[in-house]
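Standup notes
- HV: blocked on the assembly model, inputs below
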Amino acid sequence: SWVMGDFVQQEIARIRHLVGDRAQVIGAVSGGVDSTVAAKLMKEAIGDRFHAVLVDNGLMRLNECAQVKATLSEHLGINLTVVDAADLFLGRLAGVLEPEKKRKIIGSTFIDLFEKEAERIEKEAENTPNAGKVEWFLQGTLYPDVIESLSFKGPSATIKTHHNVGGLPERMMNGQGLRLLEPLRLLFKDEVREIGRSLNIHRDLIMRHPFPGPGIGIRILGEVTAERVEIARKADHIYISAIREAGIYDQMSQAYAGVDTNKAVGVMGDTRVYGYIIILRAVTTSDFMSAEAFEFPWALLQKIARTIVNSVDGVSRVTYDLTSKPPGTIELE
Ligand code: XMP
């Protein structure tokens, strides 16, 4: 609509004014609608002085990195670097069980890598027409992320540290390092989608369920290991493919397969096996602040459970999470 068209023009003007003629901007992209729309706005505003970075943290879904790369760089023409850091993240997460600790590690590792990338970009731009300091850090933060982080952050407790809001190191928040640029911070998801449409971003990307920055890391209860990430990835791929095939992807707001802390016994043929427990989650929500479990067609859910146990080695059980938010949350951690 014209209201969103206005937003795009005003935001592009605001970004140009803030950033000026020389400074460069670095931004995290994940392949989700928020970071893609934010990146596209930056590209429109300042062209190649915007540098998108996709960090492969080893916690993304099956084939996701390659797909994101194709969409952003080939289809949308955004200046993109992929940083392969799977080993670094998994190394730092080894032996860590506590959810908040996991989030903090993932968040601070992201920031470390971005600061390094910012230095590399500055060096590379020296003596080119684009020469200029990297002064800004783009984030696709939405309004609900902002209020959820602020309202829960009393002096005593933080319910969850959204790594793209509350989990940033002090040096980034107090104006000493990179400054935060958040063009979407006053918008809700449906508004971002509308803007995405007006920017000609592909429908599949616009309708994609949200995927959290810490990725599969907060969908695996307990320790994040390469083996458990692999199990979660395979199960999630089966689950989401079945949902798409059934034509019900757009009826739910978010869906994923997670992995439980412990193992459970099952029988395969004549033998007892001790295997992982998959937790399937699917919710409907209008604002992600509260949510209901999606009412699955029973036969489909059973078929998905069977397929996962039969085709993902090391899995003995599949469960479906019925919890609303509140008291549950959408992610497992
Ligand atoms: P919860 O689990 O808090 O999730 O009910 C609400 C929405 O926020 C997403 N989420 C995150 N997104 N970094 C993100 O970028 C995070 O740390 C994070 N934690 C939760 C979640 O996927 C859901 O859409």
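- HV (later): unblocked. Residues 103, 160, 162-164, 210, 212-214, 254, 288, 325, 329-331 surround xanthosine-5'-monophosphate (CB under 6 Å). The beta strands are 24-28, 50-56, 80-84, 134-138, 179-181, 254-268, 271-284, 292-293, 315-320.
- Next: hand off to the docking folks.
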